[in-house]
């Protein structure tokens, strides 16, 4: 029987293999190991070393005198310190990280924000820059008007201010560059795939702005010509078709990079974008698995040169 | 379907995109996402299929039983559908949350296959009035990523196509009761004729007069109302159903019924 709409009988084993190979390649690139030598991958419960003189780092524990891994990841050794870094991890949070989050609840003087972590983070009213420009203490009217600023479902770009003992993240948006995000589209990828970068918001040369949240939430939006006075008013102007095509292509490129476990950074995204245009793929073609693989391989090759 | 919340800005972006003819992932209004179908996974069932459309994942199994037919239909076999929304598929399916969706899906499938033109149930008859084959189709929703009805109907068709029923021979009569022999030969199997089996196509109304096919969960959040059309390969419409709270203008409805199969699967 012919399935004309592009369906193919697909083995799900292949998908797991592809992801594992992608992770191995990514780790090799990060750790700086040659192609021939594999980084040592361990699974939870696997014995790392029998030597008790090694210091135990993150991801390991001692059991009956031997050092055992507690997470699935690769082993790194620095002098006498052995650590196991997990391949993929839920977002733990680090002070100073820029993250993209979605408001889930509006409470008395704070908002609860979903940041792709174990717990919803907290954004206090006192930690945001109130509209009006001037610095002032927030009063009772501000508490009542919280929903006018940020309501359930809104996307915000904020900074991690503090990590509490139980893992709860405290967020802040005290800068003009943080605040409510305007029209665009959100992607969720694994936070382990986002490259560490001081600057998270990038205006890409193709004509779109991408916010690479450290928590794995990537937001693609059209470039704003000038900064708005208050970042809590959303621009509802219709986005033109050309910009939409760029955003759609970027979105599909980021998705395919994440699918093949390639680290996501402005460089890798722009390389994938240029490759897809060079090979004349239509935006919706980038949703097909064979096209995704072609572009991913081309990106990796191009980045290795 | 899965409940996700979007900001007003995201919704506006999606809706404007549909008006301009380009969706968030670059698809046009009537394009499907990547479809993957795998059959023959569950060896203990007579037929099985797993369908993945975008993020939506469903598993269908078909089992055959021999039973006495109801008195009003002595010469026809039967198909029974049972849908289970696994709690893994979406958070709101926890406990009994998925029951409403499961009931509406099985009712939809019953109506889809109710026409004798879609599936010839007389071929499932073994001894008229005494024994007929009954196909129990079990649908398991593994992941809910938008456009559930289409995926389930495609899976049911694939599973029925993959169904292999051992041939049954009537060996003799013993005091009024017939004796049967079920063939052990794996080559001697009966198949179900699915050449006319229908599938469901969902049209989601996002904005005035415009519908989209194969919506993602984000698009489903923007459009309140959808119409599901069951159509056979020859173009015969077996069932239609409107879901959700909203209205459909007559011209929008007739437009979606006129082109229910934009990229014909089979």
What is the fold's blueprint, element by element?
The complex is a heterodimer of chains A (305) and B (266).
Chain A: H1 12-31, E1 41-42, E2 47-49, E3 55-56, E4 60-63, E5 66-69, E6 73-78, E7 81-86, E8 98-106, E9 110-114, E10 121-128, H2 140-144, H3 146-149, E11 155-163, E12 169-173, E13 179-180, E14 185-188, E15 201-204, E16 208-212, E17 217-222, H4 241-259, H5 266-278, H6 289-304
Parallel strand pairs in A: 3-7, 10-12
Antiparallel strand pairs in A: 1-6, 2-5, 4-5, 6-7, 8-9, 8-11, 9-10, 11-12, 11-13, 14-17, 15-16, 16-17
Chain B: H1 8-20, E1 35-39, E2 47-53, E3 56-67, E4 78-85, H2 99-112, E5 125-127, E6 131-143, H3 148-161, E7 165-166, E8 168-174, E9 177-182, E10 189-190, E11 199-207, E12 210-213, H4 217-222, E13 225-231, E14 237-243, H5 250-258
Parallel strand pairs in B: 4-6
Antiparallel strand pairs in B: 1-2, 2-3, 3-6, 5-6, 7-10, 8-9, 11-12, 11-13, 13-14
GO molecular function (chain A): RNA binding
Main location (chain A): nucleus
Domain S1 motif (chain A): 96-174
Describe the structure.
The complex is a heterodimer of chains A (305) and B (266). Chain A starts with 11 loop residues before the first helix and ends with a helix. Chain A has a five-stranded mixed barrel with strand order 8-9-10-12-11. Chain A has helices spanning 12-31, 140-144, 146-149, 241-259, 266-278, 289-304; strands spanning 41-42, 47-49, 55-56, 60-63, 66-69, 73-78, 81-86, 98-106, 110-114, 121-128, 155-163, 169-173, 179-180, 185-188, 201-204, 208-212, 217-222. The longest helix of chain A has 20 residues, at 12-31. Chain A is of the alpha+beta class. Chain B is of the alpha+beta class. Helix content of chain B is 21%, strand content 35%. Chain B is elongated and about 75 Å long. Chain B starts with 7 loop residues before the first helix and ends in an 8-residue tail after the last helix. The model of chain B is unreliable at 262-266 (pLDDT under 50). Chains A and B meet through helix 4 of A and helix 1 and strand 1 of B.
């Amino acid at each position: 029987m012919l399935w004309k709409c592009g369906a193919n009988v697909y083995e799900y084993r292949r998908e797991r293999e592809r992801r594992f190979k992608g992770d191995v390649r990514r780790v090799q690139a990060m750790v700086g190991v040659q192609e021939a030598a594999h980084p040592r991958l361990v699974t939870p419960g696997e014995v790392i070393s029998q030597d008790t003189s090694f210091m135990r780092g993150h991801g390991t524990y001692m059991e009956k005198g031997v050092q055992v891994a507690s997470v699935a990841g690769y082993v790194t050794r620095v002098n006498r310190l052995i650590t196991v870094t997990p391949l993929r991890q839920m977002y733990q949070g680090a002070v100073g990280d820029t993250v993209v989050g979605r408001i889930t609840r509006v409470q008395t003087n704070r908002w609860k924000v979903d940041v792709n972590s174990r717990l919803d983070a907290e954004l206090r009213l006192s930690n945001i820059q109130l509209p009006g420009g001037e610095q002032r203490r927030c009063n009772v009217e501000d508490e009542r008007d919280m929903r006018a600023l940020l309501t359930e479902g809104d996307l915000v770009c904020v900074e991690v201010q503090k990590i509490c003992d139980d893992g709860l993240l405290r967020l802040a948006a005290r800068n003009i560059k943080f605040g409510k995000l305007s029209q665009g589209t959100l992607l969720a990828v694994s936070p382990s795939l986002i490259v560490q970068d001081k600057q998270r918001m990038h205006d890409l040369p193709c004509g779109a702005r991408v916010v690479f949240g450290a928590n794995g939430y990537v937001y693609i939006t059209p470039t704003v010509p000038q900064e708005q006075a208050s970042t809590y008013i959303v621009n509802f102007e219709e986005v033109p078709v050309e910009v939409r095509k760029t955003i759609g292509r970027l979105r599909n490129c980021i998705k395919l990079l994440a699918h093949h476990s390639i680290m996501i950074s402005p460089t890798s995204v722009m390389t994938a974008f240029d490759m897809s245009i060079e090979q004349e793929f239509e935006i919706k073609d980038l949703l097909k698995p064979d096209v995704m693989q072609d572009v991913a391989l081309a990106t990796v090759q191009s980045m290795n040169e | 379907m899965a409940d996700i919340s979007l900001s007003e800005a995201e919704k506006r972006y999606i809706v404007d995109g549909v008006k301009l003819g380009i969706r968030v992932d670059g698809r046009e209004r009537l394009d499907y996402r990547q479809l993957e179908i795998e059959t023959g996974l569950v060896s203990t069932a007579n037929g099985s299929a797993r369908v993945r459309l975008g993020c939506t994942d469903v598993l269908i199994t078909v089992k055959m039983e021999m039973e006495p037919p109801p008195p009003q239909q002595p010469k026809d076999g039967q198909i029974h559908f049972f849908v289970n929304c696994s709690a893994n598929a979406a958070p709101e399916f926890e406990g009994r949350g998925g029951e409403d969706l499961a009931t509406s899906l099985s009712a939809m499938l019953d109506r889809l296959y109710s026409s004798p033109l879609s599936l010839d149930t007389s071929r499932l008859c073994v001894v008229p009035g005494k024994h007929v084959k009954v196909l129990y189709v079990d649908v398991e929703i593994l992941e809910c990523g938008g456009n559930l009805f289409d995926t389930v109907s495609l899976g049911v068709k694939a599973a029925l196509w993959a169904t292999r029923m051992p041939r049954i021979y009537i060996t003799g009569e013993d005091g009024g009761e017939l004796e049967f022999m079920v063939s052990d030969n794996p080559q001697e199997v009966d198949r179900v004729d699915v050449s006319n089996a229908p599938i469901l196509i969902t049209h989601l109304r996002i904005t005035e007069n415009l519908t989209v096919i194969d919506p993602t969960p984000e698009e489903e959040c923007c459009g309140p109302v959808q119409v599901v059309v069951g159509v056979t390969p020859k173009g015969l419409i077996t069932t239609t159903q409107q879901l959700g709270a909203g209205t459909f203008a007559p011209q929008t409805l007739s437009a979606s019924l006129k082109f229910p199969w934009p990229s014909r699967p089979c």
